[in-house]
């Protein structure tokens, strides 16, 4: 099996596991406590409580128009992954009901249900986002909107849509407490999903202004084996030209870099910023 085929198979394995984790969240934490953290699944919980229509049936029925829009805007491959994820989510919801029965409750503490339900839902969603799929609903709508608003992540756009749904569901149920707990679950799931997609590849970017830029740059490259970029700067007050060094390091190297700079020039000016994701040589591989 070549690498491309292996990756495709792995993508669908990840989607399957993610859908199973989401179903665990819905069956054992959210639905028994009537916590509806937005999205089609949240609406499906409300519909079930009002009409008795199973969550898996509602989840499939409401996603059909979004599938069509997703295929048109995002392409056939994305649509196929989304269709697979949504079907698998409904399959696992039904499977867990068959195995454990309906209304199996892990905890009756609604706060714990909100926290752990949101945590599991976020893990499942994050895994599916990671391989380029969604489970339909507002995460698919969020992915479509992300095409037009790239500055906002799919998870954040999903949160905006879900907040609207959560508030609406609260009015329907006339239960403010349930709405508030649902918002807690929604917040947790979005943060966890973002965390899984964006990862832990944080770095620190150093902007260094010194009277000895060449000596500092050489020490950084020799002692830390990190690349240094020279930016041309000009002081607004003095009008003098001065080189600004830019160097990105991982968190473990921050202290060492400070020592190198101040060992050469104790009067150096350093600005340190957090870089959310660093790709390329010496950091995370570009895929």
Topology overview:
Blueprint: H1 3-30, H2 39-51, H3 55-74, H4 76-100, H5 110-130, H6 137-146, H7 154-173, H8 176-198, E1 203-209, H9 213-224, E2 229-234, E3 241-249, H10 254-264, E4 269-275
Antiparallel strand pairs: 1-3, 1-4, 2-3
Commentary on this structure:
- The chain has 287 residues and is of the alpha+beta class.
- It contains 10 helices and 4 strands, in the order ααααααααβαββαβ.
- It has helices spanning 3-30, 39-51, 55-74, 76-100, 110-130, 137-146, 154-173, 176-198, 213-224, 254-264; strands spanning 203-209, 229-234, 241-249, 269-275.
- A 4-stranded antiparallel β-sheet has the order 2-3-1-4, covered by helices on one side.
- It is elongated and about 75 Å long.
- It starts with a helix and ends in a 12-residue tail after the last strand.
- The mean pLDDT is 82.
Features:
single chain; 287 residues; 10 helices; 10% strand
Summarize the model shown:
The chain crosses the membrane at residues 12-30, 60-80, 87-105, 111-133, 154-172, 178-197. Residues 226-280 form the DUF2179 domain. With 287 residues, the chain is of the alpha+beta class.
